[in-house]
Amino acid sequence: MKQFEHHDALSIEEAVALLSDYEGKAKIIAGGTDLLGALRDEVFLEYPEALINIKTIDGLDYIRSDEKGLAIGAMAGLADIVKSPVVKKEYQMLAEAAYSVATPQIRNMATIGGNLAQDVRCWFYRYPRRIGGPMVCLRKGGKFCSALAGDNRYHSIFGAAALSDISLDLGKVRKGCFAVGPSDIAVALIAMDASIVTTKRSLPAELFFKATALSSTVLDSDELVKEIEIPKLPMGAVQRYDKFTLRKPIDFAVVSVASMLTLNNGVCEDARIVLGAVAPEPVRARKAEQVMKGRIVDEDVALEAAEHALAGSSPLRMNEYKVEIAKVLVKHAIWG
Ligand SMILES: Cc1cc2nc3c(=O)[nH]c(=O)nc-3n(C[C@H](O)[C@H](O)[C@H](O)COP(=O)(O)OP(=O)(O)OC[C@H]3O[C@@H](n4cnc5c(N)ncnc54)[C@H](O)[C@@H]3O)c2cc1C
């Protein structure tokens, strides 16, 4: 680990001012469960000059519910979200997604803001300096995503088709990073039509995760997540969060699916289905949602929706298996 300055911010305004002062060379630290590992392994293209601690800001860890819905402060802990009576009763999908993250120790430290802004877990990108890294990839000033030629079993299954014509001519510049979005919470929030409120704007969760070669969110370097807002969910909406992992505890999703179905006497009035860990951003399965609307939900509809959800996928050399897992999870989310 290299040396850096450390500032305890006492207000959001102070945190933003400090970020601006450092002109992109400072990072926010919340629970530190993602950031400290990345600093130790020296994975960033540029090591931050300073960390701005936001744990010292009072009152950012609330979970409040009213007739409009739920508001969660960016510093609310994942463990508190899991335990919250209102989340467990009315927003179970969020409680399930939060519970699926890591271990109790990590959930005790990790915050929802940090979970949404966490960095990707790609093993090329994260390869530690102390054991021979860094591996130069697109995120580190390289010309192409290392996953295209390397072991890509956990990488994106969407988006590869556009690149198929460049085969493995590594002299050409690649456009995309194939690391998948790691956040379980993100997938659930999009399924619940949540909004993310930052120090600059409020935007639907779906638009917050817009991956580029260098970042997984639209956050500017001087922008903070302040709050997450989830509208009151439709009465009787069937919510579900499912996650396929290789190990039971402490594992990121190989594929995850969040779903919210509104049914009336078995007929689907509305559906939101979101896939996680299949692309740099969570993927909304809009075609699958459309084919369900107005129909009685049964096993055939669930199978059809699952096919539609994965219709646009174009897996890499080693990750075709993820397509099948995703289909099973979508079917399971709809029909059990
Ligand atoms: C062993 C292990 C297993 C894990 N498994 C999972 C898993 O299965 N599913 C999953 O979803 N996650 C998993 N994680 C990731 C974990 O959820 C995140 O590390 C955690 O949620 C990050 O929260 P934090 O408060 O510790 O963030 P920090 O580590 O403090 O920050 C993470 C990033 O977010 C930025 N940031 C923090 N707060 C804000 C804010 N309010 N506004 C803007 N930027 C901010 C920081 O600058 C930093 O870049 C795992 C982590 C570990 C170490």
How would you characterize the overall build of this protein?
- The protein has 336 residues and is an alpha+beta fold.
- The chain has a domain at 143-181 and 234-336: CO dehydrogenase flavoprotein, C-terminal domain (Enolase-like, domain 1).
- Helices cover 28% and strands 19% of the residues.
- Strands 4-5-8-6-7 form a 5-stranded antiparallel beta sheet.
- The longest helix has 15 residues, at 321-335.
- The N and C termini lie far apart (47 Å).
Please give the number of β-strands: 12
CA-based shape: globular
Mean pLDDT: 93
CATH homologous superfamily identity of one domain:
CO dehydrogenase flavoprotein, C-terminal domain
Largest sheet: 5 strands, antiparallel
Low-confidence stretches: 164-174
**H and E order:** EHEHEEEHHHHHHEEHEEEEEHHH
CATH topology annotation of one domain = Enolase-like, domain 1
Q: Beta-sheet strand percentage?
A: 15-25%
Please count the helical segments: 12
Radius of gyration from the alpha-carbon trace, in angstroms: 20 Å
Major β-sheet strand ordering: 4-5-8-6-7
What is the CATH class of one domain?
Alpha Beta
Helix content: 25-40%
Terminal Cα span: 47 Å
CATH architecture tag of one domain: 2-Layer Sandwich
Task: Give me some keywords for this one.
5-stranded antiparallel beta sheet, FAD, 4-stranded antiparallel beta sheet, flavoprotein, globular, oxidoreductase, binds flavin-adenine dinucleotide, Mopterin_DH_FAD-bd, 336 residues, single chain, FAD binding, Enolase-like, domain 1, alpha+beta
